[in-house]
Amino acid sequence: QEGLVLGLGAGSTASAVGLLFDHTDVIEINPVVRANQARMAKWNFDIEHNPKVNVIVDDAIHYAKSSSKQYDMILNTVTSPLYFSSAKLYTKDFFSIIKRRLKNDGIYVTWMDSRIGSHGTEIVINTLKQNFKHCAILFIKSGYFLLIASDEPVKLQHANLADRSAALKNELIGEH
């Protein structure tokens, strides 16, 4: 399975995907963030040394437009659409571009928080629905949600996915 993560940050989310998928590409716009992943090794499962993870310094929109690669899952971890710099990743145009990078049964996952309000949430969900046949919202914790979109019905298919990585399973059970 192939995964794509938009936004590297501290590397914790991208590394979790990297532990579960056969190959994961991670797109990070800031080369300084990329260069400092070793400093976060304690929190990101030492993503720098995971041979199944490829970090690419690029803009998410540019990468999605210029690549022909397709993925089973694309996960957007970039900051909230409240910010100008990331709002472009929550538009109809972007969702259309990113959909082309998904395999037919692939899923797109993005996060959002309650700061965008109920009207903002409605806008994002309706925009997703313009590109995907099925959308779901998952409550993670107070004020934090995941949006999942696909052309196939959204359902939990791998309930024991964390079992694919003992390190990730131990972290989730032990720390969270």
Account of the 3D structure:
The chain is α/β, with parallel strands linked by helices and 176 residues long. 32% of the residues lie in helices and 28% in strands. The protein has 7 helices and 7 strands. The chain has helices at 12-20, 31-35, 60-66, 84-87, 92-100, 117-129, 166-175; strands at 2-6, 23-28, 53-57, 71-76, 102-113, 134-141, 144-150. The protein has a 7-stranded mixed sheet with strand order 3-2-1-4-5-7-6, sandwiched between helices. It is globular and about 40 Å long. The protein starts with a strand and ends with a helix. The mean pLDDT is 89.
Give a quick summary of the entry.
The chain is α/β, with parallel strands linked by helices and 176 residues long.
Average pLDDT for all residues: 89
Task: Estimate percent helicity.
Answer: 25-40%
Mind summarizing the main beta sheet? 7 strands, mixed
Strand content: 25-35%
Poorly predicted segments: none
What is the CA-based Rg, rounded?
16 Å
Question: What's the layout of helices and strands?
Answer:
Layout: E1 2-6, H1 12-20, E2 23-28, H2 31-35, E3 53-57, H3 60-66, E4 71-76, H4 84-87, H5 92-100, E5 102-113, H6 117-129, E6 134-141, E7 144-150, H7 166-175
Parallel strand pairs: 1-2, 1-4, 2-3, 4-5
Antiparallel strand pairs: 5-7, 6-7
